[in-house]
Design a protein that fits this description.
By secondary structure, this protein is an alpha/beta fold. The chain contains eight helices and nine strands. Strand 3, helix 3 and strand 4 form a beta-alpha-beta unit.
Length: 270
């Protein structure tokens, strides 16, 4: 007799707040459908910048961000959080030897593969790294390698996408209000995943207030959505855009669910 178990989703990210700012809607969407969700975070975000007025010191930033990660994940219905212990690489400059981007890809992949074998997710979601952050790109590549390396068979892998059309609207707004933002350095035209590359759109509008409440739990960080006009903020936070990369997408148009998580009973064959 084939047993059933709740569908399991593993989200793999680089820093505390990636799970909420980037993937919060997907986590809420999956949990609402009965899936067991877990977050694997590579670093404690120690190279971040504390938000003005947060009261968090440089020395206390890593501990504060870990606490925020766990609090926000719990609020999002996440059942398990795994911290890998790599050091935050920062956005620029020479990273230290223990930094995520200084660690060979195969070593990071082996660490993520161990988490996959322990969690046994049916679906893995990681970042598309289209914001240009080097840690995001390294954890994306390591996660894709880890799925192939792991003993456990993952049914589907998705990249959480920042839509290029939304990023261009965000850039236009930010250029007007904060032209010195580190996110505006380099080729801003290349930021975001091309809209036509998206394979999966999830309607998460019903979770908008909960998503914003989870974002607020990352009080040491300045949200990228703060100060945005309401229509643009809502556009970012009321829908999730994914690109299925395993198995490769061969469909027409886009899907509006994650089939490996979508069952009427909220469970799948194990």
């Amino acid at each position: 007799m084939v047993g059933t178990t709740p569908a399991r989703l593993l989200v793999v990210v680089a820093h505390p707040d990636d799970e909420t700012f980037g993937c919060g809607g997907t986590l809420l969407w999956a949990a609402e459908r009965g899936a067991a969700t877990a977050v694997c975070c590579a670093t404690r975000g120690e190279e971040g910048v504390a938000a003005p007025g947060s009261g968090v010191t440089r020395d206390g930033l890593a501990a504060a961000r870990e606490h925020e990660l766990r609090a926000a994940a719990s609020f999002l219905g996440v059942e398990r959080v795994e911290l890998l212990g790599f050091r935050d690489s920062g956005m620029a400059g020479e990273p230290v030897a223990a930094a995520l981007v200084s660690t060979p890809l195969d070593a990071v992949a082996a660490t993520v593969a161990r988490v996959i074998d322990d969690v046994r997710p049916h679906v893995v979601v990681t970042l598309d790294a289209s914001d240009g952050h080097r840690d995001h790109a390294h954890i994306r590549d390591a996660t894709l390698a880890a799925v192939a390396l792991a003993s456990w068979h993952v049914q589907a892998v998705y990249l959480q996408c920042l839509l290029r059309s939304l990023m261009q609207r965000w850039i236009a707004h930010t250029t007007g209000g904060n032209p010195d933002s580190a996110h505006l350095q380099g080729d801003t035209a290349a930021l975001g995943t091309p809209d036509e590359a998206v394979t999966t759109d999830l309607d998460t509008a019903a979770f908008l207030d909960r998503r914003r409440a989870a974002i607020a739990l990352h009080a040491s960080q300045t949200s990228p959505f703060v100060g945005l006009p309401e229509p643009l903020s809502r556009a970012f936070l009321s829908a999730e855009h994914l690109q299925r990369v395993v198995p490769p997408w061969d469909g027409d148009g886009v899907e509006h669910n994650i089939p490996a998580l979508e069952t009427t009973s909220g469970s799948v064959a194990d």
